[in-house]
Design goal:
The chain has eleven helices and 18 strands. The chain has 365 residues and is α/β, with parallel strands linked by helices. α7 packs parallel to α11. The structure holds flavin-adenine dinucleotide (FAD).
Length: 365
């Protein structure tokens, strides 16, 4: 250990533990919880950006704690495991169990649970993807440990060796800091976009370890019947975007569709509208959806939460339609139309159509 290492209390602590630890390669087989794990997710054949973002922070925490940063990868190719090392993993625990090639989250929960029980990571981090939002709490429940969702920052409590997790709540109005004091591993899911992606260093050294998990078909109550490609939408490059929110509802959704058509724009929705079944998730705009940069963005019946604003920061002209003049998007908008969308939209669509020389009646229902 260099004198510089001795100055780092975490590293010094870890070095003294090292000699007492039972290790198999670089995996922890002792009784103490140690190392930082990152669940590595593949999307469309690539490491998900959310995974790459988490590595940036995991590396920083690992260096502070004197802990190894280890990635868990299910499926994929050896090149993915090598990429994880290039992004900062010291070790990649890699399983290619045939059952893990399906996206069924119950199987991933079983497999990850077995690995955690065997190799006991101190901290387990997930990037905030849709799959991880499902997997991480299931895993924490299985392990009877604590789970903190939607982290926007991660720090360490030096004295207690605890992960301090910052979350933004009430639409960003309040920041809270939480710790999982009593249980291990400390499981947290990081909101997408909270950290920049880790740098890729193809000369980094690391180890890829094939790990065994015991799974069979009966471990999943769901069955994968069919996989369909989602509709290819080029929202990111649309010149005009008309976005509907939860306030539109299914009963008035046709009005947002008609407005998008009359303006020659792409239709989009908030997370609230997706959850209400008004629009496909492939058209969600915001933090967990697409980032748009149109010349004209029209937001109808949506509040304009910080999560949604994350997706529209690049829009040039903003128009908001809302019956609540205090809604956050109304303050941001270049043109804020206060009123009931069921009254405002039909006359707007009518005048657009008249200008285009069209005479179709605007359907009110
Ligand atoms: C990790 C995470 C990621 C997220 N990612 C996203 C994301 O990508 N995109 C996203 O949008 N959200 C995202 N969210 C959710 C976000 O925080 C908000 O909950 C969501 O944006 C609210 O959707 P909304 O504006 O449609 O609904 P609401 O906030 O409920 O707003 C509805 C609005 O409609 C107005 N209204 C109702 N009726 C009428 C009417 N008749 N006429 C006019 N106005 C009316 C109301 O005044 C209100 O302002 C995320 C949340 C989390 C935790």
């Amino acid at each position: 250990m260099s004198s510089q290492d001795m100055d780092n209390p975490w590293l010094a602590w870890a070095m003294t533990q090292e000699s007492q630890m039972t290790v198999s390669g670089t995996l922890n087989t002792g009784n103490e919880y140690r190392n930082i794990w990152v669940y590595a997710e593949l999307r469309a054949g690539f490491l998900a950006p959310e995974t790459r973002q988490v590595f940036n922070k995991a590396r920083e925490l690992g260096d502070l704690l004197g802990a190894r940063v280890q990635a868990v990868l299910f499926g994929g190719e050896e090149s993915h495991a090598k990429d994880l090392i290039a992004y900062g993993a010291d070790t990649v625990l890699w399983s290619q169990h045939a059952q893990l090639l399906s996206p069924l989250v119950e199987l991933a929960t079983q497999a990850l649970g077995q690995l955690v029980e065997t190799y006991k990571p101190e901290i387990l981090l997930f990037g905030g993807t849709r799959l991880a939002e499902d997997l991480a709490p299931r895993l924490a429940a299985r392990l009877a440990t604590g789970y903190i969702a939607d982290a926007t920052d991660l720090e360490l409590d030096d004295a207690e060796r605890l992960l301090r997790v910052t979350r933004s709540t009430f639409g960003g109005k309040i920041q809270t800091v939480s710790v999982i004091a009593e249980r291990k591993p400390q499981v947290a899911l990081v909101r997408g976009g909270s950290f920049r992606e880790a740098d890729y260093d193809r000369f980094r050294a690391g180890e890829i370890v094939a790990v065994d998990v015991q799974l069979d078909e009966t471990d999943a109550t769901a069955r994968l019947l069919e996989t369909r490609a989602s509709e290819g939408v080029d929202l990111e490059n649309a010149r005009i975007v008309v976005c509907g929110g939860k306030g539109v509802g299914k009963e008035n959704w046709h009005l947002v569709e008609q407005l998008a058509e009359a303006l020659g724009g792409e239709l989009a929705g908030t997370k609230g509208a997706v959850a209400a079944g008004c629009i496909d998730a492939s058209r969600q705009v915001g933090l967990a959806g697409k980032k748009v940069k149109p010349e004209l963005y029209v937001g109808v019946g949506l509040s304009g939460s910080l999560d949604h604003q994350d997706g529209i920061a690049g829009a040039r002209t903003l128009v908001a339609v809302n019956k609540d003049r205090e809604a956050p998007l109304m303050a941001l908008a270049d043109y804020a139309l206060v009123g009931d969308l069921a009254e405002i939209l039909p006359s707007w669509i009518k005048s657009l159509r008249e200008r285009q020389g069209k005479r179709e009646p605007v359907a009110t229902r």
